[in-house]
Structures are given as C-alpha cells and as structure tokens.
Structure to design on (121 residues):
C-alpha cells in the first residue's frame, strides 16, 4: 500500500510558477511510475504528465509541454511537478498517482488527496 500526499498548491497569477510536491509512504515507491492529473470544476480528471520509476523518461499532455516538468527523488520518496507560465486553464485540483507509465487514470493504483491550484488573472 502506497500513501501519497500532495502539497504546494495555492493562488498564483498568470505567468507565475509553482512547484507541487508529492511525498509517498509505504514500500516500493521507486518501483512505480508516477503520474500527475488535474481536475477543473465541472470537468473530467485529465492527465498532465508521468515519469518512469527511474526518472529517465517523462511524457506530458500537449497543453503543458514546455511549461511543466516532472521530476522525482527516490531517496526522498518524492515526485515534483514544476509548473511555469501558468494560465487560467491550469486551474484545478492536482493529484499525484502511483502505477504504470501511462496516460490513463485506470493504470494508476494509488492516489493522493489532491492540492488546489488557482491561476488568477
């Protein structure tokens, strides 16, 4: 069982940067790919990006490519989502998840509770 806790959300302005963290507890964190998803009010949860267990490979949805970067520190059981050039459409609850290196939510077995990001104009 892996437990995930996100932090780092908040209210920012257009063009600002923000770094989210996700700390894992439980065994075998380093054996899982880690994904980030987000959910805006009234919309479905959507894939943001994912990173392999080793951190060697990452994959992002088109809308965040070049602006968001996922990294991980397996020694600290932590995965990060560095967000820059934030836009109002980036607003939502951001979730980290542990599972397979994939872009669909069903491939992830463990989820955090989410952290809210609000991008204001």
């Amino acid at each position: 069982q892996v437990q995930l806790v996100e932090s780092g959300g908040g209210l920012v302005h257009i063009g600002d940067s923000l770094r989210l963290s996700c700390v894992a507890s439980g065994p075998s964190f380093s054996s899982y790919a880690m994904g980030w998803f987000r959910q805006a009010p009234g919309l479905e949860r959507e894939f943001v990006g994912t990173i392999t267990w080793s951190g060697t490979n990452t994959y992002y949805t088109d809308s965040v490519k070049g602006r968001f970067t996922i990294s991980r520190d397996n020694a600290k059981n932590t995965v990060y989502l560095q967000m820059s050039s934030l836009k109002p459409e980036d607003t939502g609850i951001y979730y980290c998840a542990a599972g397979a290196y994939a872009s669909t939510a069903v491939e992830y077995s463990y989820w955090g509770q989410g952290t809210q990001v609000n991008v204001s104009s």
About this structure: The first strand starts at residue 3 and ends at 7. Residues 90 and 119 are 7 Å apart (CA to CA). The chain has a mean pLDDT of 96.
